[in-house]
Amino acid sequence: MIGKLFRRRGILSDREQELRAREAELLERLATALARFGSDVADDDLQRFREVREQLAGLFLLVIAGEFNSGKSSFINALLGESVLPEGVTPTTDRINLLRHGPAVTEQLREAYLLDRTHPAEVLRELNIVDTPGTNAIIRRHEELTRDFVPRSDLVLFVTSADRPFTESERAFLEQIRTWGKKVVFVVNKVDILRTSAERDEVVAFVRDNATALLGEPPEIFPVSAREAQAARNGAGDEARWEASGFAAVEHYLLRTLDQEERVRLKLLSPLNVGLRLALRYKDTAFERLKLLADDVEAIANIDRQLAAFHQEMLRDLEPRLARLDVLLGGMESRGMRFFDENVRLGRIKTLLDSEGVKRAFAHEVVAETPQEIEAEVGRVIDWIVERNLRVWQDIQAYVARQATRHREGIIGDVGSSFSYNRQALLDSVGRVSREVIGSYDREGESRAIANDVQGTFATAALANAGAVGIGTMVATVLTGAAADVTGILLAATLAIGGLYLIPRRRRQAKEAFGDRIADLRTRLKNGLTRQAHQEIGQASERVNEAIGPYRRFVETQQTQLNEARGELVAAEDALLRLRSEIERR
Fold this sequence. Notes:
Layout: H1 2-5, H2 14-35, H3 43-55, E1 61-66, H4 72-80, E2 96-101, E3 106-111, E4 114-119, E5 128-131, H5 140-149, E6 155-161, H6 168-179, E7 184-189, H7 197-215, E8 221-223, H8 226-234, H9 239-244, H10 247-257, H11 260-343, H12 349-353, H13 355-367, H14 370-406, H15 418-439, H16 443-456, H17 471-480, H18 483-495, H19 499-584
Parallel strand pairs: 1-5, 1-6, 2-4, 6-7, 7-8
Antiparallel strand pairs: 2-5, 3-4
């Protein structure tokens, strides 16, 4: 709205027009870069940036600021030569008063807190003057109006009172002005209450010292008496009194020192400095977020490393468990070989005639408790697989919980919250999935499922329903079948001619067949358990990656967007700095 009220009366040189066009282009680039932050750009920042861009084409804007009762309104009235604004010892300005040149005195409410006034004063032909509410008024909205309007200014004329110069609240307000890169000129009003010139010099020196410490350079300071200036105006143009009031020097500064070229320079610097402040602020925001995302990238990489370590540890720790099965099978194999050597020979013909007896002896001496021991050992391996699968979820859940709480309070204060909210929501969702998996984890059900899968690897045509019986039963079925080799020897020994030759050959065949059965059983057990371990690893990794998928995609997408945004902000900031240096050298 305000930008529409201003019209440039002077004629810009070609050089000034070129600088203004370049600045408008750079501010447009900065706007594009800021747009990458979406809703995370503070509404106040967007509004101020929009206003200063509009202000670039407006008339020079002089903003009068200061505490209430410092004499801002009386200062403006004295400068205009007429009581245009109300004055008083209590806060009288409750809105922004925009004073611009016009043939008659008028006023019109343009916005809720913006009163547009016109006045035929000559000083208003060269600039627009803004009167703001007091910065330390009891009504906080008044101070907010002043603080929000300062970024639009091309020059801030700060009025302080001679009876209480440079108060702490003034210092705090000037600190905010400084962050926007605004040029500040000081007016020490009410110097007529000081009894001597020495007192006046002391007050001016006090203001200069404090302002220099705050702003980094000595400012322009004008000691004035608005009361004397108004009296001079009312006294039919008492030039001596006007000069003594200090207003002649102020008027000379505003209309002569701040000539056309200087006003254009300040006009160009004003939105440029606001743009630089926003570029720096959101560049830092992008940097802080990238640092936070670096933690998230490391968190995801750490989870990936945990899964890879889980894989390696499972395979490494599976070997000694399979070795215990080998020991059981190896012991049974040794007993079987001894059994054949001791029983399948000519001296045991009578024993071999008892087929059922041979089977019982084989089951007792060779098979013994091996099937039960193997089943128990396989059960322990399965329980270990289930426990490790659960533990990896518990480890990840605990890790994600720590990661989620590290930055729960956000990262950059009042700069938008959707980034932090989305990141936190995704971390929380990963933690929730982990807790649900852990809370609903059925150890017995998982163990049964794995056992059935392992049993399925032993199923043969003769044991089509092996999955319904125990591993030990299947092992016993496979091994006791070896006894049939012994009974087959008996038949051959009793019916064949030359039994002395046949029995050793049959014994050798039985031992080979038994060894083959043991080797096959060993392979089936090892392959089945190894395959199941791989399957459980794959399923655990798949479920974890599914849970962290949205979090991973968020981190990757945000990294790309923030790197691009930060690159654009750095480029825009560099170009704005070069342009500012060029303008300041004019």
